[in-house]
């Protein structure tokens, strides 16, 4: 049986990826800070969904976390780096600590977890890593400087990782979600009609995506149908990144 890890798997896009994986008989370990949220996901999705509470911004604890998971659950073939945090603030109001906090969770923790998982995947002869980026890395969006920096880093890391790790059978790809209808985004857009109109007008398909759309893309990139695909940044965005 294939086993996967999905960070931030308790809600939103992470939960949708986990749901797709579980539907296709992939045992999925979800990592997040909020145990009750993770347990609610397990209740919804069943025994193939395994909650593990951990704070990935505690970088020093990541090697032990990976050792614990692999000792308890055996080989892990797929890693989805989905966990991330955002901060909406005017450029000049963002403090050094604000900026560093976003980078620690969205970039350094992704690097550290991937590094430890690669050591493990090497012993299996291969694996698949899927990073989650954002439209913020495709073009400039105001008031999210730290988030934009972090997601641009993720796309660059994806390419560097793919070139270095693919010879060992470890494929590394990235999904760049467009505007996806989650509880959080729906509220943000409904509160800001001008922004909603802007999003819709530059999305050729004219609708918001669903979390399941990202789940489908992750399932494809994790599976054998994508065995010759590595180093790509796949926009799942209804054409938003090319919209005019």
Report on this model:
Strand 4 (78-81), helix 4 and strand 5 (127-132) form a beta-alpha-beta unit. The protein has a single domain, classed as NAD(P)-binding Rossmann-like Domain (Rossmann fold). It has helices at 12-23, 35-45, 62-73, 96-124, 145-165, 183-190, 193-201, 211-222, and strands spanning 3-7, 27-32, 49-53, 78-81, 127-132, 170-177, 233-236. Strands 3-2-1-4-5-6-7 form a 7-stranded parallel sheet, sandwiched between helices. The radius of gyration is 17 Å and the shape is globular. The protein is an alpha/beta fold and 244 residues long. Helix 1 crosses helix 8 (211-222), helix 3 (62-73) packs parallel to helix 4 and helix 4 runs parallel beside helix 5 (145-165).
What does the secondary structure layout of this molecule look like, with pairings?
Layout: E1 3-7, H1 12-23, E2 27-32, H2 35-45, E3 49-53, H3 62-73, E4 78-81, H4 96-124, E5 127-132, H5 145-165, E6 170-177, H6 183-190, H7 193-201, H8 211-222, E7 233-236
Parallel strand pairs: 1-2, 1-4, 2-3, 4-5, 5-6, 6-7
Helix pairs in contact: 1-8, 3-4, 4-5
């Amino acid at each position: 049986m294939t086993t996967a890890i999905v960070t931030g798997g308790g809600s939103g896009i992470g939960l949708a990826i986990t749901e797709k994986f579980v539907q296709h008989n992939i045992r999925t370990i979800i990592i997040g800070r909020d145990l009750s949220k993770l347990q609610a996901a397990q209740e919804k999705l069943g025994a193939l969904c395994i909650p593990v509470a951990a704070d990935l911004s505690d970088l020093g604890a990541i090697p032990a976390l990976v050792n614990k998971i692999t000792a308890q659950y055996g080989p892990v073939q797929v890693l989805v780096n989905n966990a991330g945090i955002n901060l909406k603030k005017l450029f000049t109001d963002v403090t050094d600590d604000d900026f560093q906090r976003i980078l620690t969770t969205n970039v350094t923790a992704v690097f550290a977890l991937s590094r430890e998982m690669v050591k493990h995947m090497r012993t299996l002869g291969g694996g698949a890593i899927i990073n989650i980026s954002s439209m913020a890395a495709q073009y400039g969006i105001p008031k999210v400087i730290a988030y934009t920096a972090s997601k641009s880093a993720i796309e660059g890391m994806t390419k560097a990782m793919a070139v270095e790790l693919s010879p060992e059978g470890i494929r590394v790809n990235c999904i760049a979600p467009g505007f996806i209808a989650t509880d959080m985004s729906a509220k943000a857009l409904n509160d800001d009609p001008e922004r909603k109109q802007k999003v819709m007008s530059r999305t050729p398909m004219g609708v918001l995506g669903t979390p399941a759309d990202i789940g489908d893309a992750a399932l494809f990139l994790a599976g054998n149908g994508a065995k010759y695909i590595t180093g790509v940044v796949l926009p799942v965005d209804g054409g938003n990144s090319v919209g005019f």
